[in-house]
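Section 4.2 – Deliverable D4.2 (structural model, holo form)

The reporting period included a commitment to supply a predicted holo structure for the target in complex with guanosine-5'-diphosphate. Inputs used:
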Amino acid sequence: MIFFTKPYSFVKGGDSGVGKSCIVLRFVRGQFDPTSKVTVGASFLYAALAPLYYRGAAVAVVVYDITSPESFSKAQYWVKELQKHGSPDIVMALVGNKADLQEKREVPVQDGIDYAEKNGMFFIETSAKTADNINQLFEEIAKRLPRPSP
Ligand code: GDP
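Output (structure tokens):
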């Protein structure tokens, strides 16, 4: 998960390896670095601390890896947690990352679409590696952000 807390900083949490750091790095710096562990002002969030962030988060981006059905199941677990503990007006996005690995795909795109639709989430498949849909992801998030009160 990538949380956007007010005033819009990133907090990263949930399961590792799906590409959260790479997505943020691609968006913020236009780079993809498969080897180095990057930090882009994102702090790691442990499961025990997650509920503290749910409440303050304006946006939660739940990321899974399209080559990993296990990561898709875990993403669904996080969506349920957010529905239980998050603020009622939280903007939620479901992201199937590593879309460049089509030959290794194990989660059909339709499964992502269906799950997101059932849960009132915005859905997109991305590749941090090729930059495919990364800008679109953040643009769609920006469109859905609550307007700051005057
Ligand atoms: P995080 O733990 O969720 O933050 O995951 P990382 O951003 O550290 O990425 C985990 C691994 O997946 C790294 O080896 C990345 O190189 C790789 N990775 C991330 N995004 C992509 C992608 O879009 N395509 C491919 N092929 N690999 C990716």
